[in-house]
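Appendix B, record 7
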Amino acid sequence: MTQNVAAIILAAGEGKRMMSSLAKTTHRIAGIPIVAHVARAAIGAEAERIVVVVGKDADQVIAACGPGAEFVVQAERLGTGHACQQAEQLLGNYEGVVLVLCGDAPLITERTLKKMLTEHNNTGSVATVLTAFPRETRGLGRISRDASGAFKEIVEEKDADETELAIREINAGFYCFNSQALFEALRHIDNNNAQSEYMLTDVLALLTTNGRVCTVITEDFSETIGVNDRVWLSKAEEAMQARIREKLMWAGVTILSPSSTYIESDVAIAKDTVIYPGSVLRGSTHIGEGCEIGPHAILQNATIGAKTTVINSVISDSRVGEHCNIGPFAHLRPENSIGDYVRVGNFVEVKKSQIGARSKIKHLSYVGDAIVGRDVNMGAGTIVVNHDGVNKHQTIILDNAFIGCNSNLVAPVTIGESAVVAAGSTITKDVPAFSLGVGRARQENKEGWVHRRGVRP
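Structure tokens (predicted):
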């Protein structure tokens, strides 16, 4: 942009209709707080300063915005104009353009804000208003124009007469102003209206006497959806999910059943990956090229290498390499690093462990706090006993080791390179390299025992 840009985000509303102990703008859409979506759009539109107006639940909103924003408190909620007045203490000397944004409208895009800023600069306007032509205008302020079609004022529905109520063009609630013109006009508004509030829209009528006020029509009215209750929260989520999925599909990702797939905002998926129905992809999950995810996979902050398959499994805060097979019904808990070509099969749980390339844990096993080398085979029912009731201990299994079925490895213990643990063993001591570890009672057969005891005829 040719001018300096700042943004004021109005986020002081209590949101009583949400029926929640959380502040309205801290509820999440696609994994991100509502107010943070708005801040991201402003940053994307090259706003160098973000000032958030907060109210009763200030601490919650401040935490939701994350680093980089500045905050002012609107102690009394006396209207949108009054809220903007609070920002003057931080931006009163700012020279540039100020975006004023609704903190409860998570679908606004940087593209639309850039369009507003471009029109504002190109026309030399003192203010620019985002407008729309929705199917339903009830409850929305109308755009009043003069005989030449130029912007005249915004008329709130409670203050509108029958002629004004018939207007189809509405105020979408997003603005941009020359900073000094905004704060000067805010000093001259009053609360002489049906709401008895100091309205930001009154600033626009004042500015028409000092310069041009232009309008920009939004291409997608859903961008302006404000979340005031749980119904609109669900509608905004639905719209955001559709946007996320469509963007991924245009980028080469196959989503077989979009309506049954949930993907959060910060998820990244490379081309030629297929997402099967019922999958939930959350947080900062990154999925490589050519993967198959699902059905019914839940990934949270997971990194998945190329050509890996994850079926009916849960992966949290872990890295999985390339060409791996995970599941069905596997659970990778946080802090795992899984090497390439690894197989983690059905009913296997892995926690805080490193698994080397080409190793296999295919059935009914638990591996916790372990370092497992390359080309290790862990038989069905292998349990790494990592907890003594007080502390966690580490198990080390070196390259090419073979762990027989139904074995317990009681940590701390090391299984050497190419060592073998006999099936059914409980191992409490280190097994040297190239050795066989056996930790079970010797089998003894007592012939005729059944008949002597009279257990069977």
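Remarks on this record: The chain has ten helices and 41 strands. The radius of gyration is 31 Å.
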